[in-house]
Amino acid sequence: MRIIKHMIVVLIALFMILGIPALYYLDIPAYFSDEDATSSATIDLPDQPSGIYYVVINKEHHKETQSLWEDFFSGKDTSVILEDIHCIAADQDINALIMGDILKARLPENQMKLREENITLTMSKLDAGSFDTIIISKDVADVQHAELPFEKEGFSVIELRGE
After folding, report:
1. Does residue 18 sit in the same domain as residue 79?
2. pLDDT at position 78 over 80
């Protein structure tokens, strides 16, 4: 009888030490489901916002890969781009942030950094040309009276149309 009590106490202690944390952290039904890692590894993309968006690329930062980035942002198929890109979107430009997330999801992990900044700081960087890439919606650009560098030599402006 003493051995049975000892075994019960040991089993209860092991369950409390190992079993309870496992119940909280393990997804036990997933072990018995038919899905494997490759069939269920999808990224849920947000719906593409409607409107017109501009992607302004600083050519000074992307001399060798400028045409590849232009093709990528235009929606064309591109080969592998062996360079990271840093994008800025204004914190009040929600649709540009969503568009940036959609573009970021099309690239390998950590290749595109999307940072939201104060709208005034974003506009001053756009005017001064001290940025890598900026995503801005036409609505916000019109409200802020932003002068997009369509004609300037060191910049490339790509127009995206959301559906």
Report:
1. no
2. no
